Amino acid sequence: MYSPRLALSSVIKGISGYSKGHAVALGRWKTFQLLTLRMISDAAKEMEPNNNTIVPFPPPPSVGFDEVKRRLHEGSIVLVDVRESPERVDPGRIPGSLHVPLSQFKDAFHGDDKTFEAHYDFPKPKPESENLCLHCYAGKRARVAATRLQELHYRDFCVYDGGFQDWEEQGGPILRGAGANLIFFDQVKQGLEEKSIILIDVRKPHERFHPGRIPGSVNIPLSALFTAFHMSPEEFAFTYGFDKPCLNDGNSDSQLVLHCLRGKRAQDAADKLALLGIETGVYKGSFMDWMEQGGTVERHMDCLDVKEGLEEGNITLIDVRDNQELETEGRIPGAKEIPLSELENAFQLSKEEFVSKYGFERPSQTDLIVTSCKIGKRAEAACNMLQQLGFRATFYKGSYDDWRQHESTE
């Protein structure tokens, strides 16, 4: 096969012995000159880089046990295990690690974000992400996966070369078996009724609006879980609207149960909390199972729902903002007012005490209570609180800001 590079090499080696006199004698000197120039030109083009040239990238940096463990505790790392599924059962998995098998790696990361999240139940890392880290058992497969990511323009990730083997040797916590303690529909339903479980929904807040939420569940998104359980009890209660579970001190009678849409993120959440020494249960099937089993599903109310409910008198709208906010920002006509900090105690007062303090009759447990605040976050916390007290409650998504926006456009 003709190769300009090899041909040029041959010409250069033989040109000194191929004299002008010989070429003239053969009548081919001109042809010889043209051929030589062509070879030089072709060889030069062959050696120039082009758009199809694969330029090797430097290997991503390696991180060790201490950094991986620290960043897992901080929630500042997305640790992806590229081993196959059976290996995560036995010999086990690193708590907090996520899973994309090497056999699916390139297709998974080449696909769109929505398909990735639906299949693997965590957001697809962006190419510019600096918190992505790969691991396998001892490093080899993680490096293969790293090469595949680089081909897809990922640049700033790292590799835990020691992998699961190093994690185990260093004494890191390990989860073995098929998963955390599995909890089923009847146990969840009974536990919520008896208040013997704390059911934490680890989905994103918007998923609780649609397709809905399990009454009595509280919300800490998976991405915020580590940060939440590192908060002080006061900061936790202010942020999430319920008391921080103290499940590793032996003083709690409540079991912590996690759920999501189908169960995978709940399992990931259980892995994360295991790093903190917190034992949890996972609701098998999670929200999808709850709906299939006929469990009650609650959804938020929007502006039209609230207006209609107030006009027809079939809801009690309670604004949980404090008095200063109400005076500064304004009120929704027809709303009652109880600050969030007083809500739990208020609904444990007698009917007479309640009327005396707040100026309206306390709703019964069959009346529909709708909570609101400024943007909806405290309203959801208030709704959770009322449901735990046995009241029928939902909340106004968007709350006062949404009401004011609709009023200004009408």
UniProtKB/TrEMBL annotation:
It comes from Tigriopus californicus. It comes from the Eukaryota. Coiled coil: none annotated. InterPro entries: Rhodanese-like_dom, Rhodanese-like_dom_sf. This is Rhodanese domain-containing protein. Pfam families: Rhodanese. Residues 73-176, 193-299, 311-408 form the Rhodanese domain. SUPFAM superfamilies: Rhodanese/Cell cycle control phosphatase.
